[in-house]
Amino acid sequence: MSAPLAPDFSLPATGGQTVTLSALRGRNVVIYFYPKDNTPGCTNETRDFGALHAEFAAADCTVLGISRDSLKSHENFKAKLELPFELVSDPEEKACEAFGVMKLKNMYGKQVRGIERSTFLIDATGAIAREWRGVKVPGHAEEVLAAARAR
């Protein structure tokens, strides 16, 4: 049985770009969904992916971070961390819903909808080769890189 195709999306990204997932076929893509720019866990996760960017590129892998933050927030976050890859803005939760990462979370005793930290490795055919849900940040980018190299 073959792996399911990743849901396609076309969304605005940093650098004045629009990212269309299907246009990236022919190379591996890592999409990591994270809750919010400039929060401790998201900053660490994004910094980790940035630090390994050259190694992901050597594995023929494009890295994209996606959250519901605005493009302006993403531009500032990207500049602050000096990121070598693009951040995708999904304020209407189109990609978030398509990938099933929106969850009810408990925050300060209240239930709120938010992004469950999740990562998807998409192969060159556009199929989901591997997914990680409920991600714990320490060591995660390295684990994703190992999976990308094994493709």
Automatic annotation (TrEMBL):
It is an enzyme of class 1 (oxidoreductase). Residues 1-151 form the Thioredoxin domain. The active site is at 42 (cysteine sulfenic acid (-soh) intermediate). GO terms for cellular component: cytoplasm. Belongs to the peroxiredoxin family. BCP/PrxQ subfamily. Thiol-specific peroxidase that catalyzes the reduction of hydrogen peroxide and organic hydroperoxides to water and alcohols, respectively. Plays a role in cell protection against oxidative stress by detoxifying peroxides and as sensor of hydrogen peroxide-mediated signaling events. Monomer. This is thioredoxin-dependent peroxiredoxin. It comes from Thauera phenylacetica B4P.
